[in-house]
């Protein structure tokens, strides 16, 4: 079995987190995170997750191509088609769904959370699967701080008095809401 | 003794604009080396570079104070204020190249040259002809065409002498608005106390402070306050040992320090926007950084023109720039053999003429390149 591809893990992470690739690489932790998921779940599961992601992307591309325009979801925008395919191929899958949710939490919080016992009973437990931080830097690089326009408390000092200013959240993450 | 190249207030103002650009020009190279260091590694090197970079920011502020004191108008958005890297600085008869480099022995060698004590062998040798084919040198004479200075120290010596000469002829030289001065209440944790300039004495003190802090001219490796000159701070990285009081210049005897040259992101040397894949997400991030930096310089310009309170906002901008810098250097630059991205400091032209019309930091300004 070939080792899970870093590029594919990055592509999966872009779709799971809704952050751009440059932001994910900009944490400096993408390779550490892939290694953590491999250690916690095993390569077989990771490889299957990446394959399911490839398949979901392909489904969305086919649907966007409009082979069957009679289907009601054909009118959905590309992003919604991908969303639908990800739910179908990954999130509703008993084995891959919990791992994908954990990858999201990993990027947002910088923590690996132990998978539920139902999952480990069925698919196997790994010593590295316990709840743990990945590196000393992962807390402050958590995407959640970027998402809410705040600095991680106790790290990445934003400057005296900056707390008096409203958070700066990039427009593309506001989902139509006004600042 | 050659004739002074400074004869009146306008000459002085021209020189101080060059000095302002010169002080700023050292900051991007220091920051590039500093932010190339992987987090949690190289704390000795990071600390040394950071201290010097922050003191260059003090120098920039001191030059602005001198310029304001004689009725000039600091402008950090002038075309060409941020040099195109590689830039060139004088090193005696020759020039040397200042690149934007990751922390490396080459980078430290450049930093030592930037800060090296350099005194012309005679007063006649202070000015050196710029080679015709040469690239623009940062410590040039704005009044004697085709001439640049033997060293940064000689450049400041010329300004200090010029100030004395013009002040003797023109008792109203220091008639700038005192409200434009940036005082200690606006400038904190910045590598020394800021000097408010109101007369010849305080102007000369401010400029001598700049020269002494960088090069340790006349004062040995430690200055009167017991502070190690920048040149010797960097020498510590080359010699692998800290100085302590009483040491000879080439023989530090303090605790050893080590540099892990490999714990560094291998950023592309003096990267340009043209090195980024056109239209890529990463190119957009690099352009955004340049736009944010241009907006930051516009904010500093306002702070130096009557709104010193804005320096507090500028500090918050600096932290945002830090985060942007970190994101860029952690991204590999596609097509560059594993080298990483870094800010290019190509400031969009929108900031050149009218700072009011410039977009705010962090806004997308794709397509607005020089």
Automatic annotation (TrEMBL), chain A:
UniProt superkingdom: Bacteria
Protein name (database record): Uncharacterized protein
Organism: Streptomyces filipinensis
TrEMBL record, chain B:
Highest taxon of the lineage: Bacteria
One Pfam family of this chain: Ferritin-like
Iminophenyl-pyruvate dimer synthase domain: residues covered: 16-238
Segments traversing the membrane: none
InterPro entries with a match to the protein in the record: Ferritin-like, Ferritin-like_SF, VioB/RebD_dom
Protein name: Iminophenyl-pyruvate dimer synthase domain-containing protein
């Amino acid at each position: 079995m070939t080792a899970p591809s870093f590029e594919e893990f990055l592509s999966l992470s872009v779709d799971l987190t809704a952050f751009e690739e440059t932001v994910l690489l900009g944490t400096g932790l993408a390779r550490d995170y892939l290694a953590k998921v491999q250690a916690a779940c095993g390569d077989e599961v990771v490889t299957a997750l990446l394959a399911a992601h490839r398949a979901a992307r392909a489904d969305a591309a086919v649907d966007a191509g409009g082979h069957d325009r009679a289907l009601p979801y054909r009118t959905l925008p590309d992003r919604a088609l991908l969303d639908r395919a990800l739910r179908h191929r990954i999130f509703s899958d008993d084995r891959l769904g919990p791992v994908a949710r954990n990858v999201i939490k990993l990027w947002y919080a910088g923590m690996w959370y132990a998978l539920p016992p139902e999952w480990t009973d069925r698919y196997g437990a790994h010593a590295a699967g316990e709840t743990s931080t990945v590196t000393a830097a992962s807390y402050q690089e958590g995407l959640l701080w970027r998402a809410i326009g705040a600095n991680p408390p106790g790290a990445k000092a934003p400057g005296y008095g900056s707390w008096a200013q409203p958070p700066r959240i990039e427009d593309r993450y506001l989902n139509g809401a006004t600042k | 003794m050659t004739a002074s190249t400074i004869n009146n207030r306008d000459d002085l103002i021209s020189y101080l604009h060059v000095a302002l650009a010169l002080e700023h020009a050292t900051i991007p190279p220091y920051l590039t080396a500093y932010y190339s260091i992987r987090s949690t590694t190289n704390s000795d090197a990071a600390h040394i570079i950071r201290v010097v970079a922050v003191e260059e920011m003090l120098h920039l502020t001191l030059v602005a104070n001198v310029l304001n004191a004689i009725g000039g108008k600091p402008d950090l958005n002038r075309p060409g204020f941020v040099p195109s890297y590689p830039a060139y600085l004088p090193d005696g008869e020759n020039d040397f190249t200042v690149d934007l480099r990751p922390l490396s022995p080459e980078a430290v060698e450049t930093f030592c040259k930037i800060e090296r004590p350099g005194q012309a062998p005679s007063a006649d040798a202070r000015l050196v002809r710029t080679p015709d084919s040469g690239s623009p040198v940062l410590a040039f004479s704005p009044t004697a065409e085709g001439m640049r200075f033997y060293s940064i120290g000689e450049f400041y010596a010329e300004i200090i002498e010029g100030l004395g000469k013009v002040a003797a002829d023109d008792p109203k030289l220091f008639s700038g608005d005192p409200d434009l001065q940036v005082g200690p209440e606006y400038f904190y944790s910045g590598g020394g106390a800021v000097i408010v300039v109101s007369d010849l004495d305080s102007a000369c003190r401010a400029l001598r402070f700049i020269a002494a802090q960088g090069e340790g001219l006349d004062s040995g490796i430690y200055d009167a306050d017991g502070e190690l000159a920048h040149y010797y701070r960097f020498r510590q990285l080359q010699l692998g040992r800290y100085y302590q009081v009483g040491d000879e210049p080439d023989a530090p005897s303090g605790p050893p320090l080590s540099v892990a040259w490999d714990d560094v992101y291998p950023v592309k040397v003096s990267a340009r926007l043209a090195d980024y894949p056109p239209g890529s997400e990463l190119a957009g991030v690099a352009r955004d950084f340049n736009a944010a930096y241009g907006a930051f310089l516009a904010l500093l310009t306002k702070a130096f023109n009557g709104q010193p309170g804005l320096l507090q906002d500028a500090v918050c901008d600096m932290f945002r720039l830090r985060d942007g810098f970190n994101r860029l250097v952690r991204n590999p630059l596609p097509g560059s053999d594993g080298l990483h991205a870094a800010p290019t400091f190509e400031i969009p032209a929108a900031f050149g003429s009218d700072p009011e019309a410039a977009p705010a930091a962090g806004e997308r300004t794709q397509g607005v390149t020089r």
